[in-house]
Amino acid sequence: MYRVWGWIVLTWALYRYFFHLPEWADEFIFKPMVFVLPVLWYVKSREKATLASIGLTGKNLFTSIYIGLGFGFVFALEGLAANAIKYGKIEIVPIAAFEQYGMGMLILLSVATAFSEEVLSRGFVFSRLMKGNKGLMYSAFLSTLMFVVLHIPILAFGLKLQGVVLLLFFVTDFVLGFANALLLYNTGSLVAPILVHIFWNMTVALYL
Fold first, then answer.
1. Cα gap 205→108, rounded to integer Å
2. C-alpha neighbours within 13 Å on the C-beta side of residue 36
3. Which has the closest alpha carbon to 149: 176, 184, 174, 175?
4. Contact, 9 vs 38, CB < 8 A?
5. Which residues have C-beta within 8 Å of that of residue 208, sequence separation ≥ 6?
């Protein structure tokens, strides 16, 4: 698992460094290729396991949807709090992608991002740590750290955040990753983590 993850991080860092393509290309094409396809290949070819082993299942579907929507709303409120800390008041400052693509495409981008990152970070990394009897808290903590590391390339070569904003990014990313690990553990499905991730992506896009 560590080797697969390491190659994915290296490939993604090189992609971020050498290529600066439109966001739709990143999220709809290259991130699924780099994040999802290697995981699917490893799970099916090397482990001979099912997709359910990485949380791609209809198990507890409606419960997962309710939980995902509920926690997603909480994360949206967390985003509002972070917005107030950043600007001293609640201020809507949408990212450039909102002006470029509009709300509909922004939602689709958020769905694509959430799916790719959750399959890798929770469905694959977290579940394999749990499968290795690492314990819930250890697995959630380590997989979340690895999730945060995935975002370093865009911080280094794209967003270039600094100061309080950078700190808020790391803190909220860690909270998101840890909470989603616990959600996957309790539901057995990636539905709730993906929904929460979508809420968080939209929060970041619209007012962080």
1. 12
2. 19
3. 174
4. no
5. 79, 82, 83, 86, 93, 168
> CA–CA separation, 18 vs 146, rounded Å?
22
pTM of the model: 0.90
Q: Would you give per-residue pLDDT tens digits along the chain (208 residues)?
A: 999 999 999 999 999 889 989 889 999 999 999 999 999 999 999 999 999 999 999 888 999 999 999 988 887 787 777 777 767 776 666 666 666 777 788 889 999 999 999 999 999 999 999 999 889 999 999 999 999 999 887 776 666 666 766 777 788 889 999 999 999 999 999 999 999 999 888 877 766 5
Token pair, residue 127, equals: 């579940």
d(CA 39, CA 42): 5
